[in-house]
């Protein structure tokens, strides 16, 4: 309201250089139908739910963004202290407002644009988060979907979400470590080290990348290159005599799969899904055998 830059809850003016930031990016977005553009630091842009416009040095003379910023329907954003049903936002501004972005070009005027929303929780870079969204968008945001929880009181998750050390390459390519929930770690391409693990542990992110690991989890095939420990943690199968996944990220060998009954996906126990044997066991399910199908009448449920 006074044109200041808010540094975050519980921050202090006693902190050295609290107000020193480099003004080196152009930041744009759309917030509740209004486009914005300002010149400031990367941190300020992230705080305001903006998007950095590369190859731009300044906003236009009339204060508009020098590039087009895509926007769409945002369901459940918090504006002030009030949660709105729907508004037009850019993707980053919607997420910053704890909303559920429905996609570029979508409109609040469309019928059924906002699906039945539930709590989506996780831990991202040490910070717990909770947004009201659909299961599909929760997975896209690296969260854990709670079908039985409708609200995020004070933007905090109404239930505990386990978190642990997440190893992911930083800008220099070295293994960095931060606290994430499992799904959020996977969303940023990291290696989750397990619930309640800590970045303070010696060599927590040092692993040999010497195996190709494949599997099928809830109908989706996965393949990654990592250590034997990581493959076991993720419920994968080591592919011998393979050096890498295919160029499109697929497994270089066929992985058998079948019906998995009672697997836990997120925090929800599913009746049946298609898994590889190891992934089913990792998800606390009951594997019905290679080639079995959830459509079969005699599959145990």
Major sheet: arrangement of strands: 2-1-3
Helix content: 10-25%
Spans of at least 5 consecutive residues whose pLDDT stays below 50 are none
**Main beta-sheet annotation:** 3 strands, antiparallel
What's the alpha carbon Rg, rounded to whole Å?
22 Å
What coarse outline follows from CA principal-axis ratios? globular
Tell me the span between the first and last alpha carbons.
57 Å
Measured by DSSP, the beta-strand proportion falls in 25-35%
Order of helices and strands: EEHEEEEEHEEEHEEEHEEEHEEEEEHE
* Mean pLDDT over the full residue set: 83
Task: Tell me the number of helical segments per DSSP (H or I, 4 or more residues long).
Answer: 6
**What would you call the structural class?**
mainly beta
Q: How many strands?
A: 22
């Amino acid at each position: 309201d006074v044109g200041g830059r808010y540094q975050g809850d519980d921050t202090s003016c006693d902190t050295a250089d609290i107000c020193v930031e480099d003004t080196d990016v152009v930041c744009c977005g759309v917030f509740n139908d209004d486009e914005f553009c300002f010149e400031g630091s990367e941190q300020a842009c992230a705080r305001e739910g903006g998007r950095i416009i590369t190859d731009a040095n300044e906003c236009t003379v009339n204060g508009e963004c020098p590039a087009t910023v895509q926007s769409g329907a945002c369901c459940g954003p918090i504006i002030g202290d009030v949660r709105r049903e729907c508004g037009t936002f850019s993707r980053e501004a919607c997420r910053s407002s704890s909303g559920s972005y429905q996609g570029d070009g979508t409109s609040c005027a469309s019928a059924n644009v906002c699906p039945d929303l539930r709590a989506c929780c996780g831990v991202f870079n040490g910070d717990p988060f909770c947004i009201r969204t659909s299961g599909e968008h929760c997975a896209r945001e690296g969260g854990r979907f709670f079908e039985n929880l409708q609200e995020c009181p004070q933007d905090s998750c109404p239930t505990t979400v386990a978190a642990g050390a997440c190893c992911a390459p930083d800008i220099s390519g070295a293994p960095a470590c931060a606290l994430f929930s499992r799904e959020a770690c996977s969303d940023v391409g990291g290696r989750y080290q397990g619930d309640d693990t800590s970045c303070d542990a010696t060599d927590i992110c040092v692993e040999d990348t010497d195996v190709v690991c494949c599997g099928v989890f809830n109908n989706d095939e996965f393949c990654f290159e990592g250590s034997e420990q990581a493959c076991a943690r993720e419920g994968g199968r080591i592919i011998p005599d393979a050096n890498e996944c295919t160029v499109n990220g697929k497994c270089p060998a066929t992985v058998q799969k079948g019906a998995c009954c009672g697997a836990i996906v997120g925090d929800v126990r599913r009746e049946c899904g298609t898994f590889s044997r190891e992934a089913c066991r990792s998800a606390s399910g009951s594997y019905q055998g290679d080639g079995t199908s959830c459509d079969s009448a005699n599959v145990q449920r």
